[in-house]
Amino acid sequence: MSLLARTDIDAGGFFVNFNQDCSSLAVGSKNGYSLFSLNSVDSNLDQIYTSYGEDICLVERLFSSSLVAVVSLNAPRKLKVCHFKKGTEICNYSYSNTILAVKLNRSRLVVCLEESLYIHNIRDMKVVHTIRDTPPNKTGLCALASDSDHCYLAYPGSATVGEVQIFDAVNLHAKIMIPAHDSPLAAIAFSQVGTEIATASEKGTVIRVFSVSDGTKLFEFRRGVKRCVSIASLAFSTCSKYLCCSSNTETVHVFKLERSTPETSDDQGAKDHWYGYISKAVSSYLPMALPSQVTDVFTQGRAFASALLPVAGLRHSCVITTIQKALRMLVASQDGYFYVYQLPTEGGECQLIKKHDLRNIEPPPNPPRAESVPIGVPTVVPSGGTSYAATVRGTSGSSAGSGGAGSVDDDHQGHQQQQQ
Fold first, then answer.
1. What does the alpha-carbon distance between residue 242 and residue 51 come to, in Å, rounded to a whole number?
2. CA distance 311 to 333
3. Residue 163 pairs with which residues in a beta bridge?
4. Confidence band (pLDDT; 50, 70, 90) for 317?
5. Distance separating alpha carbons of residues 276 and 296, to the nearest angstrom
6. Is residue 54 within 8 Å of 365, Cβ to Cβ?
7. What is the pLDDT of residue 362?
8. Is 26 exposed, middle or buried (0-12, 13-18, 19+ CB in 10 A)?
9. Distance of alpha carbon 29 from alpha carbon 8, whole angstroms
10. How many CB atoms within 10 Å of residue 124?
11. Where are the alpha helices (DSSP H) in 225-337?
12. How far is the C-alpha of 198 from the C-alpha of 151, rounded, in Å?
């Protein structure tokens, strides 16, 4: 979710966001933010931490570490990086415009503004690259692969058509531009290992999956044909076998990624032959301009499963992960509710297992004293604590590109580190 596009915050709504490996949920509101563990959501939603007092509009947690990046509605141009277990602010950065999105993995932290992206080295928070003059991106649409071995950044390459710019965030150069849709992009998401990317356009009827290495289209799914919708969330399952999609409707769709194997190649060949025969037969009765559209309709996959939400017209964030050896689809809503669904092995309707209420963010019994910690270099050690670099390590085991990719920003114009 972006900041400028989120009218929900003015209506008392919530920012909801899953971390990179779907092990925790972050919830931001006018009262602060909370982190929840997802280890036992079938029965309980365990609260890990609550920060009370600020109106938080963006919060991102680095895997299961104590590192969080937060943005307040009162200071939408300032990013704060905090060690939530110690109740300390490690550092903060100010930018020339409103922060629309923040993404991070174990190597990089990316800050998205409307027409630029800042790439930080997460070890010391230094800016290593700035992508300037990107196409206008008012919703802050971008994605960062969670796998550091395939550390790719994706963002819209055009404001008028659905082009996806893939940028190598480690070697700092543009990798590939993928022409994904005719209409502007509405949602993008990397697979867990960062080798595939899913896309949806503003029309919201077709979901596509591409190979990041060469832009090859791997899958195409039809979400619907009767109405255009606003896609809010795309997410690969942690097992990479499914792709879920939420929108402003009451339905969450799940698509199965049927990957080719030697055993299924013969069956796929028979299907291709059948599709070719049918599309040829049908197109012979239609105008000459339509055969390609007919072929698309026959070759697009349909939803493998779906879940029905109680309310339409809201933004939802969805993921599919394995919890206690069971496959679950988790849906967090801007109205402050969290749904746990069982994903049927044979497809069909997902069964609702549990509904959790996220709306009660209360101050902790003994809130830790706020403490600012300088971080000029990663070796700075807070009193009684550990260094920023050690915190990041605890979670793990420059050429210009198209679409506005620029050179390293030496003077950090419009961007200043605020040392405490």
1. 34
2. 10
3. 179
4. very high
5. 11
6. no
7. 61
8. buried
9. 10
10. 18
11. 265-283, 291-299
12. 16
Task: For residue 385, name the pLDDT band (cuts at 50, 70, 90).
Answer: very low
Q: Which strands form 206-211's sheet, in the order they lie side by side?
A: 185-190, 196-201, 206-211, 217-222
With the CA atoms of 30, 33, 37 and 42 taken in that order, what torsion angle do they form, in degrees rounded to the nearest 10?
-10
Q: Which two structure tokens, joined as six digits, stand for 376? A: 């000029």
Using alpha carbons only, give the angle 183, 301, 332 rounded to the nearest 5 degrees. Answer: 70
> Long-range contacts of range 68-76, CB-CB < 8 Å, 24 or more positions apart?
68/26, 68/33, 68/35, 69/102, 69/104, 69/109, 70/28, 70/33, 71/3, 71/99, 71/102, 73/3, 73/9, 73/30, 76/3
In degrees, to the nearest 5, what angle opens at C-alpha 273 toward C-alphas 268 and 276?
A: 125
Residue that is written with structure tokens 């749904």 in the block? 339
What pLDDT score does 393 carry?
Answer: 61
Alpha helices in 49-202 (DSSP H): none
Half-sphere exposure in the Cβ direction for 232 (13 Å, CA)? 26
User: Residue 8 burial by CB count (10 A; 0-12/13-18/19+): exposed, middle or buried?
Assistant: middle
> From CA 213, how far away is CA 175, in angstroms rounded?
8
| Cα dist from 318 to 62, 228, 262, whole Å | 18, 20, 32
Whether the CB-CB separation of 17 and 334 falls below 8 Å is answered with: no
Strand-pairing partners, residue 306, are 253, 349
Q: 48-62, 105-119, 217-231, 261-275: lowest mean pLDDT where?
A: 261-275
Backbone angles phi, psi at 174, to 5 degrees: -65, 135
Task: Please answer whether residues 179 and 404 qualify as being in contact, where contact means their C-beta atoms are separated by less than 8 angstroms.
Answer: no
HSE at residue 374, side-chain half, CA atoms within 13 A, is 6
21: tokens are 């490996």
Structure tokens at 234: 């795309």
d(CA 331, CA 339): 5
User: What whole-number distance in Å separates Cα of residue 219 and Cα of residue 258?
Assistant: 9
Please list the alpha-helical segments (H only) found in 349-397: 388-393
What does the block give as tokens for 170?
A: 């480690």
Residues 174-208: b if buried by 16+ CB within 10 A, e if exposed: bbbbbebbebbbbbbbbbbebbbbbbbbebbbbbb
Which has the closest alpha carbon to 144: 126, 159, 166?
166
Query: What is the average pLDDT score of the chain?
Result: 82
Q: Give the amino acid at 191.
A: S
